[in-house]
Amino acid sequence: MGRLGAGLASLALCLGGFGLVPPASATPVVGTVISDDDEPTITITSVGGSTLAEGDDLRVDVTVANPGSETLSISSLSLFGNSSPLSSRTTLMTFMEGGGGALTPLHTETELEDIAPGGTVAFDLTVAAEDLLWSGSYNSWGPRGLEAEAILADDTRLADRSIAVVEPNIDLTPMPAAAAIPLTQTPEELAGNTLSVEDFAEPRAEPTEEPTESAEPTAEASGTAVEPTATPTDEAEAGAESDRFTQTVGLLAMPGVSLFVDPAIDSLEDPAEAIDGSDGSEMLTTPLYDADTAALVHGGHSQILEDVMADASDVALLPAGADGATIDALRDAGVEAALLSDEDIPQAGFSYATPSARTTVVTDSAEMPALAIDSAVSSALAGRLSDGSKLSTLDSQQVVLGLSALTYRERPNDPRAMVLSLDRAGLSQYGASVDDPEDAEQIAGSLETLMGASWVEPTSVSDLLELEDPETDREALAATNVSSGEITSAQVDELTGFQASVATYANLAEDPDAVLDPTKSAARSALATGLRGDGAARDRIIGGINNLANQLAGSLSVEPTSTINVISENTELPLHVSSELPFSSGVVIRVDSHDFRLVSKGDVAVSLPGDGTTDVSVPVEARGSGNVQVEVQILDPAGNVIGPSQDAQIRVRADWENVGTAVIAIGLVGILAFGIVRSLRRGKKHGPVDPTASAQAQRNRRRAVWRHGK
């Protein structure tokens, strides 16, 4: 990255005669600090190869840009370098941040072409090996600072710095190194995981004409809920997401890289296929949606923690600010080892050498094997110095390589393990993540350079954990540490409540999971660790689930009705039930009457089509006369009220039927009696009967019977 400074050319050249340039405190060259877009810049764009072998020429490419409106004249262009290796990691970082240091002139050119307004000129500065005299011996190999300087015609000084690393020409026992890279969704991608009732719309069902009079809705009548319909925009976004993750895996599938992949990234078909575990690479999984396990522990949400850890690896990659409470809870959830920042467990006391990454985390209740992430090298990998200034792609690569060489040189007889990492998408502990393919490509280049160095042995995280713990004395891990931006316990409780509300209505569908699963995924995405850095994105996710719950909550109702007349002891109340749910639902209609004159004969189960109104008949029994008010309720199959109740006015006149029957019966009897009397009056008339003759006839009949029997 370009470094811009200002100073006096005469002072620079005077000191240059002694083989030195002024210290950076006098001529700062930190970052590309440009206050005006018209200011000229100088940038080192290449230092030849990533390492320089003894006996090779040093080739440095420099670009001078003139964005102004006037021609730029350059009086001289010089290259300076350290005559000996930088002595420590601190001196390297200080040099790149603009600190002082003895620089020897290596090459100067004075006959230079002018640069037209808006133009850019590239210069190739080459230093012959015989003039360079840089050795790859035991004491001389390693990183050296470079500075390119341009003195303009008006005595303005432009300067940029970078690092060249001299390759060792001796046999070394390489140090094991690993890069733990999280592959997670960005806050923007997570915030896109919102839902509305339209996502669950299904083909319009025909209204139910004859509801089933039972307490359980039939499966055939309850409809079929469908998966949310994908729009072309959704498909395009999913395709872009798939491309990003697929590209990143392809770029980072190299020796020494352990990918920690969010299992919720279903667009990534099988990242394990791109990982060859035999070469020091591997694929591990984070908790679902890379959930903020520390926040769940701090809020006491153990059940949710268990849920999100179901598909996670037994090695946890923790963000900055880890604490003992989280370590203990993760161990109970099945985690066997953890990676955490060296800033959370710094080396106790002073030591010239960087400690091994392999360590053990001790909590109040137990111990856990761990790896301490080298935060300084990780920041350089992310393209940032410890003071926050940005590094160019070249400088990031060379600083990472130089820091690793200096780490080795601190104790060459004790090659200690080193671990690098990057931020989750959305966080900024180290300064970058791999959420952009361009960033991922740059980071992959730096990692490939590092893992290809002769003093580095690419190793997976799992293999580093198998190393023996050197028992470095480190400070104790904090018992509890609530980090800024963690999702709060109240927010988690809100999510749980909203999910329960959605579930009340989702369970009415034939396929509840078609609604429950996307809702649960959206709720879990709000737990993502990366949202520590974007609370607004988290609020959008939570608000989306809340809106969905509210939309569903007012979707079922009984329509108001005019007064219903009941004149029979056994009849049915005609009701109209409206559903604005996007899917068919099975519900139960209940009529509650607190008046003995009208009694419901039972609940009625009915299937309601999505977004429609259904006629429902509820059987009742009338036991008297009078005006009665009943309450109509909508229940789920389990008997829980799921919609607002509706009062209905009933005019009961059941005794009218009895009176009418009696009147009709009396009328029929009267008609029958009248007919009998009339028939008798119209019948045949006979003359009077002689009593003497009748008695003689009876005696004659008796004699005839007697004789016959004799």
TrEMBL record:
Region span, Disordered: 202-242, 683-710
Keyword terms of this UniProt record: Membrane, Signal, Transmembrane, Transmembrane helix
Membrane-spanning parts: 659-677
Protein name: CARDB domain-containing protein
Any Pfam family matching the protein: DUF6049
Basic residues bias locations: 699-710
Signal peptide: 1-26
Keyword Transmembrane among UniProt keywords: yes
Keyword Transmembrane: yes
Compositionally biased intervals (Low complexity): 214-225
